[in-house]
């Protein structure tokens, strides 16, 4: 059986990290694509030269021509610009929307059967635009954000409770980052919901609220420290988990930005919800009952994503 082929559109900080992780996990052969000449070729060669040391077999190719992504099983998109200190994700909209148009055309032509994972910000609007520009089936185009947001939440909770990250689960809904909706009653330590842990005296409501806020601001905290770009290790790990769920038909239940066609009362938008990912892409959107407070937060999050989609339509009316 031939190896899987994974194309990375954008070979910057996340793209390079993705290639390294995909190699180490032997998920398939890798094509690094970028408009910058030499960057994808250089990173590909460097990672290939680590393969004899780390014992993995993968072919790595760097390219500046979309033909190289032909026949890919998975395409992960990070092309565009990241945030600098003081910028919001939404400030990236105009420039990255144009990039999505080019990337969508490249995928449509050369990899129409791929499972496409978008990471470019502002995520929920960019994945929505990418699906429209590429014309691929909606269940085959998803955005990575929820796994990262919940990983940040899980890490901070594990640190607070002094337990293994493996025993902490977290459930987040809604748009990426600032407008994410953490569902504390569905987030647990070894199955014990967070509100019960507050009652048990493991933490206070005030501390929990601080952790939620730090999670929402998790991306900005790293941008502020790095100064020249945004987070890349954890975003890459999160996208690889999604690619693996698809390639191995794992039927994983993961929070992703998925296309909604009426679920949660939302039509033709991408919003972060729990889904099942297997060989069929997004095989099922899981709809849970929200209480009044959660519903209000979710609606605010959806409204902010809707505003970004409107801003995209103002720039590219063909998206309507
Ligand atoms: P960076 O290291 O700048 O890499 C982006 C790459 O895209 C560069 O190598 C560019 O040359 C390339 N590029 C630019 N325009 C094009 C084009 N038209 N076609 C192909 N390649 C192009 O950024 P990064 O890897 O740190 O981040 C990439 C994106 O991910 C940014 O938009 C970030 O905001 C976003 N991001 C999202 C998350 C989420 O959780 C959703 C987290 C972190 C970063």
TrEMBL record:
Its EC number is 1.1.1.37. Keywords: NAD, Oxidoreductase, Tricarboxylic acid cycle. Substrate binds at residues 83, 89, 121, 152. One of its GO terms (molecular function) is L-lactate dehydrogenase (NAD+) activity. Catalyzes the reversible oxidation of malate to oxaloacetate. Residues 148-303 form the Lactate/malate dehydrogenase C-terminal domain. The keyword Cell cycle does not apply. NAD(+) binds at residues 10-15, 34, 96, 119-121. This is Malate dehydrogenase. It catalyses: (S)-malate + NAD(+) = oxaloacetate + NADH + H(+). One of its GO terms (biological process) is lactate metabolic process. The keyword Oxidoreductase applies. Coiled coil: none annotated. CDD domains: LDH-like_MDH. Residues 5-143 form the Lactate/malate dehydrogenase N-terminal domain. It comes from Phyllobacterium myrsinacearum. Belongs to the LDH/MDH superfamily. MDH type 3 family. Pfam families: Ldh_1_C, Ldh_1_N. It comes from the Bacteria. The gene is mdh. The active site is at 176 (proton acceptor).
